[in-house]
């Protein structure tokens, strides 16, 4: 069986398993898998243009681990993540840190001395997580390695150290996994990046990628790559894709979970978000949760699902209304095609807690706050690649500081520039969000905390602009279960399904009398 697997012959006939032909296939397979000397001595590229770590950064990476570093790395790990072969979750180590601290540090010191782990400490489980709704093959699964807790503590500590210095030796074109860079900068630049495709250019690109593979040992996965044609016939795109060995495709397409080449003013472009919203806020979940639990889930889904879309595209009014309709129906446990009693007005639920609301959160205001953050990033990071591309395309250096794009232009960045009109309708000036400082040398904003733009602070400002007057602040105490505070909040407004309230809404009741005190009220 072992030789049969090595030969990788699936059509072998009984009786031919031990022939010279069979062994020739085994030997050929071994030759293909063998690492030859030419791969051990890879060619090198010598250039002074490559970025390197400074001597100071290199020294910092080689310092012994401190107790504070190990504790910080431990607290950065999720407390209840799936355990590895050792069956320990990080909540155990956090709870008994004072008791286990010395043993953990002994393990870390052993790793520093020997540069390897003891047998069994780096064992792991491989778990397959489905990437699609109905997986049919291994390609539809994502392998996840469940490693032991001690191994992960060391790995997390190393990653935190490397994160502080890795940005100095990585080129600006790498947007993900580098502190201070945003993966969404990629889709923002994509409409401005075009490659003039000719057959000879495709062959040259294939040669360049081959040389890159030989020099670095890193091979491009063409199974995950596609060739797109803009203003080109599909047959021509197929000819371009042939030398590269990847599949041809066409616009629109999904890049980093956001659509590229799609008209985001059309409802069908937002269908993935609407479908995910509806699946996460399904009726069976609503029936098994209390009112406070439903409010928590509504806020949780709002904060996670549509962030990629809302961070790049101004949502049309119809999409906002559709998403809020799903929220309302889930909150009041009604079928999506039926009507039911909504005990509290939606504007009251969205209002900030400072004015007596429940702070469910406005999707409209979240969208505006996320988009306004790009204004701050554009002005404060002019050296970044995406800002240079947009500045050159829109010629912003010769325009007033509050003009971020050319007028009468279309595209993602032009749409972000046009949200100024929405702020003006709310009596909020652009200079409140972003303004010059020190004679135009620097920039300031009322919504910056610790040097970073705070989306939550601007969103809260927008919520208050929509709800300037309320019933007064209601104290949502964390020490009191939310189920109780939400009930008191509704009772304070007379918005609970009492017999009197049901009668007032023409809903038949068995008796208007209280079952405890026999009082009609």
Task: Pick out its properties.
single chain; 521 residues; mainly alpha; 6 domains; two-stranded antiparallel sheet; two-stranded parallel ribbon; 25 helices
Taken as a percent bin, the fraction of beta residues is 5-15%
Helix coverage percent = 40-55%
Strand line-up across the major sheet: 1-2
Residue windows where pLDDT falls under 50 for at least 5 positions = 1-16, 35-39
Please outline the major beta sheet.
2 strands, antiparallel
Number of strands: 10
Mean pLDDT, to the nearest integer, reads: 78
The radius of gyration over CA amounts to 30 Å
- Could you tell me how far the N terminus lies from the C terminus, measured between alpha carbons in angstroms? 82 Å
Total helical elements: 25
Shape type? globular
In terms of structural class, how would the helical and strand content be classed? mainly alpha
How many structural domains are formed by the residues?
6
Condensed summary:
With 521 residues, the chain is mainly α. The protein has helices at residues 2-7, 20-33, 37-40, 55-61, 67-76, 90-95, 97-114, 149-165, 185-189, 199-216, 234-244, 271-280, 283-287, 291-304, 307-310, 317-331, 346-350, 363-380, 385-394, 412-417, 420-425, 430-433, 455-466, 482-492, 499-504, and strands at 124-130, 141-147, 226-228, 247-249, 253-255, 258-260, 435-437, 442-444, 448-449, 452-453.
